[in-house]
Specification:
This protein is an alpha/beta fold. It has a single domain, classed as NAD(P)-binding Rossmann-like Domain (Rossmann fold, 3-Layer(aba) Sandwich). Strands 3-2-1-4-5-7-8-9 form an eight-stranded mixed sheet, with helices on both faces. The chain has a three-stranded mixed sheet with strand order 6-10-11. It holds the Pfam family adh_short. GO terms for molecular function: oxidoreductase activity. InterPro entries: NAD(P)-bd_dom_sf, SDR_fam. Keywords: Oxidoreductase. Belongs to the short-chain dehydrogenases/reductases (SDR) family.
């Protein structure tokens, strides 16, 4: 069976993706903070379908990312066909990870890049795909200050969220130009979907507004359409590596430290932020990035 690796596959869009990949007879390896909760969540989808492996993963810890990647390589009997960096958080109360970064920036941006690099040598060289969950909020920020992951906030964490999602979209596009040609890299906006992602957004805690948003927002099943298209469609339309509504979209230029569209600088700065993680650098050197 083909092998798919997904982070955050225990709820929301991630759970929908797991369900459909199992229907397609994938061996799905799920990275989750709680193996017990994940087992309960996916149990209804386990009858007569593909195979599931559940591994612990904490994206606030680079050590955990490394351990997860090592276990994935052991569990994947063949090369990996799909890597879906789905897990993410939004507007959570400020906290600094043990690695020294604001938590949204590490969970949504730094750890997915790290995981992707660690698993690149295990991707199927004859044809595989790497996906990153982004957001339309990337358009809300036009200057990517590389010091942002070190900055704190008191109440509003949405700027850090938008920053992390813009970084991941632009880095996905950069990565797509430097990996082997048969490994395709995409980022995607799933739409405005009613999931746990909004649990820390104040407006959604009011009953009246919550019911209104339930009515107008997409369901996780509806929100899974674009990433599923990227996962399962044999032939994908050429164009931007950033997708929404099942189509490639224009990724607008941004400034990086006040230099227009200097994504190479963002990439190199990301490597510097991860420089103490030696297994990561071993792979970077192996691939010549």
């Amino acid at each position: 069976n083909p092998t798919a690796v997904i982070t955050g596959g225990d709820s929301g869009i991630g759970l929908e993706l797991v369900n459909r990949l199992l229907e397609a007879q994938f061996h799905v390896i799920i990275g989750t903070r709680s193996r017990d909760l994940c087992s309960k969540a996916i149990e209804p989808y386990m009858v007569g379908m593909g195979r599931v492996t559940i591994l612990e993963l904490d994206l606030t810890s680079f050590d955990s990312v490394h351990t997860f990647a090592f276990k994935v390589v052991l569990e994947a009997s063949e090369k990996i066909d799909l890597l879906i960096n789905n897990a993410g958080v939004m507007n959570v109360p400020y906290s600094k990870t043990a690695d020294g970064f604001e938590s949204q920036c590490q969970i949504n941006y730094l750890s997915p890049i790290l995981l992707t690099q660690l698993l690149l040598p295990s991707m199927n060289p004859r044809g595989s795909r790497i996906l990153f969950a982004s957001s339309s909020t990337l358009y809300a920020i036009n200057n990517l200050d590389t010091n942002m992951p070190f900055r704190s906030y008191t109440h509003n964490g949405l700027d850090h969220y938008a920053y992390s999602k813009s970084c991941i979209a632009h880095l996905a596009q950069h990565l797509s130009t430097i990996v082997p040609p048969d490994i395709k890299v995409y980022s995607y906006h799933p739409g405005t979907v009613r999931t746990k992602l909004f649990d820390h957004t104040t407006l959604f805690t009011f009953k009246l507004f919550s019911k209104l948003f339930d009515f107008i927002m997409l369901t996780p099943k509806e929100g899974s359409k674009t990433p599923l298209h990227l996962c399962l469609c044999e032939y994908l339309e050429n164009g931007s590596s950033y997708w929404a509504d099942n189509r490639p979209q224009t990724l607008m230029p941004v400034y990086v430290d006040n230099k227009l569209n200097d994504i190479r600088q963002l990439w190199e700065d990301t490597l510097i932020k991860l420089e103490n993680f030696k297994p990561f650098y071993a792979i970077v050197f192996k691939w010549g990035f």
